[in-house]
Amino acid sequence: MCPSNNLYKNPKPCKHLADYKLKNGLCGYSLIQECCRTTPYGRTTLEISKLEIPRCSICSGCHGRFYMCLICSSVLCCLSPESNHALLHSQSQNGHEILVDIERAELYCFVCCDQVYDPDFDKAVMCKHIMGFSRNENEGVESELRLSKRRRLSFGMDLDSKNMKRLFFRRDQKSKSCFPLGLRGLNNLGNTCFMNSVLQVLLHAPPLRNYFLSDRHNREVCRKMSSDRLCLPCDIDLMFSAVFSGDRTPYSPAKFLYSWWQHSENFATYEQQDAHEFFISMLDRIHDKEGKSSLAIKDNGDCQCIAHRAFYGLLRSDVTCASCGFTSTTHDPCMDISLDLSTCNSSPKNLADKSSKPKESLGGCLDLFTRPEKLGSDQKLYCENCQEKQDALKQMSIKKLPLVLCFHIKRFEHSPTRKMSRKIDRHMQFPFSLDMKPYLASSIVRKRYGNRIFSFDSDESDISTEFEIFAVVTHSGMLESGHYVTYLRLRNQWYKCDDAWITEVDEEVVRASQCYLMYYVQKMLYHKSCEDVSCQPMSLRADTFVPIAGCC
C-alpha cells in the first residue's frame, strides 16, 4: 500500500453546504434516507409521495427536473433558466440554498449553481442503496442488516466499509451473472459524470489495464525517484489498484480529481465539462509525465509512453493541385478521429427524396471523412509545380492505426455568425466489429490511381485492420445540462456504467444509445482480454489482482 500523502484530500464542499451542516448537522440527511428508493435497475431515487410523478410546491407542475429542499422539504421544479422555481426558492428563503436532485439523489447548491459532493450524504444514500438490493436475499443477510440498523448515526445506518463489502459480496453471489473483476461504480463528486464515463473506458482499455496492473508504473518507486510531488500516473495507478481490488462498493476518485485539477488548472471547477476534452487532457497529462523518460523514446523518435502506445495514430493529408495534378502530402499525429454527423450519408438520392430520412452510420461518417473535398477560394494551394496559388482538392486517410481507436462524434455545433450553439440528437448506427482497411492511406491511394500504383513507401498491409468495440460513451440531455453514461463490453456482455450504478444491459440498448465517443480495440487484443479477465465473484481481499496479458 502506498503511504498516505497529505497533498491529497477530498475536494472541499461549497461554503453554503458547510454552513448548512454547521447549523443543522446531519438531520436533513436522515429524512432524505427515509425517502430513498432503489429501483429494479439499481438506481437510487427519492420517493416523496405515493404518486409516481412529483409536483412543484409553487406551480403544481409535473414537468422538468425536481429538487427537494433539505430545510423545509419543499419540492421545486426547474424547467429552464427562465422558469426555475428551485432557484427562486433558494433566493427567497435564507439558508435554503442546498437541495437534492430527486431523480439522482444528489446534492445541488443553487447559489453556486453547481452539484456538490459530501461524503456523509454519499454514505447515507449508499446505506439505503444496499438495503434496497438486499431485501430479497436470504435470512442471514436480513438479520445482519437488522443488526446494522441498531447501530445508527444522526443521519441513519452506520454500515462501515467491512460490512458494506460483505453485503455487496453476498449480493454478487446471489446475482444471476457475476460481474467481471474491475467493474466498479464511480461516485459522482459534483458534475463529474464526464470524468467517470471516460475513466471507465480507460480502466478497461486492454493496453492501459495491462500496463498498470502489471506494475509498469510503480507509484512508490516513482515518488522516491521523482521530485514531482504530484504525479497523475501515480494516481491512475492507485485507482487501478482500488478498482481491481475486488471491492464492489462504489469508488470515489477524489484524489485523482484533485491531482488532475493541479495538472489542468483550466478544468479546476465543479462545472460540467466535455468528456472528449477531458479524454484528450488525460492523455496529454500522461504523456507529459511518462514521455520524459529516455526509455520512452525509440531510436526513430516515436514516444513509447502508454498513452501513445495505446492511442497514437497517424493521419495522411493529400492536397492535389486542380491544374497540374501535383500532390502535397503531410502526416499529422492523432489520438482520436473526429467525425461530422450533420452531413454524413446525405447522398443526392436521399436529399431528393424528402420523405426518406437519411440513416446515419459510422461507415457513412468515415466515407465522408476520407472523401475528396474541394478547398475554398480562401484556401488555395501554392503549387510548387505551377509556382502560384491554385484551386485544390484535399483528401484525408489513415496512415497508421493505433491499438485503441477512438471516434469522436461531433454532436455539439457552434455557429460564430449566428452566435448560437446546438446539439445534434440524431441517432447513428455503428457496428460492433469494424474493418478499417478501406480507410487506410494505401487503400485510398490505390483507389485514386487504380492499377498504376502497386506499392509505395510504408505500406500498411501488415497492420491488423480488424477492430472490436469495447466501450461507448453517450450523452443525453441538452447542450447546457446533460449527462454522460458509459457502456462497457466485457466478455461479449454489455454493462451500463452510470456513475456509481452498474447494470447489465442488452446490446439493443447500446445500439439505440446516442453515441458521443466510441472506442474500438484491435480484434486480437479484445479476444485476448476476454480470456484473461476473471469473471469470478468478487473477493473480499483488497489486494487481489489478475494479470492481463496481450499487449504492451
TrEMBL record:
Family annotation (SUPFAM superfamilies): Cysteine proteinases, RING/U-box
Residues covered by the UBP-type domain: 12-137
Main location group: nucleus
Known catalytic reactions: Thiol-dependent hydrolysis of ester, thioester, amide, peptide and isopeptide bonds formed by the C-terminal Gly of ubiquitin (a 76-residue protein attached to proteins as an intracellular targeting signal)
USP domain boundaries: 184-523
Keywords: Hydrolase, Metal-binding, Nucleus, Protease, Thiol protease, Ubl conjugation pathway, Zinc, Zinc-finger
E.C. designation(s): 3.4.19.12
Signal peptide per UniProt: none
InterPro entries: Papain-like_cys_pep_sf, Peptidase_C19_UCH, Ub_carboxyl-term_hydrolase, USP, USP_CS, Znf_RING/FYVE/PHD, Znf_UBP
Gene Ontology cellular component list: nucleus; SAGA-type complex
Transmembrane segments: none
This protein's record includes keyword Acyltransferase: no
Keyword check for Hydrolase: yes
GO biological process, one term: protein deubiquitination
Molecular-function GO term, any one: zinc ion binding
Protein family per UniProt: Belongs to the peptidase C19 family.
The protein's name in its UniProt record: ubiquitinyl hydrolase 1
Species whose genome carries this gene: Anisodus tanguticus
